[in-house]
Amino acid sequence: MTTAAVEHGHGGDAHGHDEVIYQETRDMRLLGFVLFLCSDVVLFSAFVFAYLYLRGTIDEWPPILNGHQLPRLDLPFAEFNSVVLFGSGVTMHHALENWKHGKKGLFDVFMGATIVLGIMFLCGQAYEYSHAAIGGWSSSIFGASFFTLTGMHGFHVFCGVVYLAILWWQTKKGVYDTGHYFGLTAGTLYWHFVDVIWVGLFFLFYIF
Amino acid sequence: MDLAVIERGTALVGAIVVGVFASIALKADWNAKGLDNDTTKLLLGLMAFGCLMVLAASFGLIGPKG
Question: Does the predicted TM-score (pTM) go above 0.80?
């Protein structure tokens, strides 16, 4: 059965039977997706605990490099960039809600806004990478941890932007309707997930 | 005007707006059942917490001093 057929539940003659199968496979796909997000939490946790351990081995933070203490990261800019990403989470939530209620015009507006805000966040990350005076990836524990964790998160955001763009394209192709939209639900969960990971990284690198 | 002041001011206003909308969305979904809704509620709650953290940092309540 094609993706469109699975989403609509129109695979055979018995529509009611297909609807039951759709609901069952939807629940399984949802559970699988949530487990995938849990596995991603484990991945990030491993790097976060490695960072915390390494940070604990140093007396002074930020560490000293070539006789000079490294500066703290740019907190005001990080606050701005964080709000951009959190804002995209809210627009994505409203995109899904509007899709559920059949308001496709508003869905397009919020979906577009989410993708634009996601790209803005990535541009902000690129700007920060080029301006952060903490040395390179291999210069210190600070640089290695910062670029690894935020880079991994940035890659997730990039994948999310591509994912949302594909979902948007699928809505135009009629893959989803107002009763069958698992892909959009999964996309929204993924996008909220990358927002929440950033909450942790923001605290670890800019506040702590 | 100092760039940091503009960034901080924008973040402050943005965090209030986003935090309020996230809280409204959370309240609206509060009674919704199912794994997807429960996960959404958890993630929206954490995002609202993130907005609070940005607010606190903007006011200088948390974060590095000096």
Answer: yes
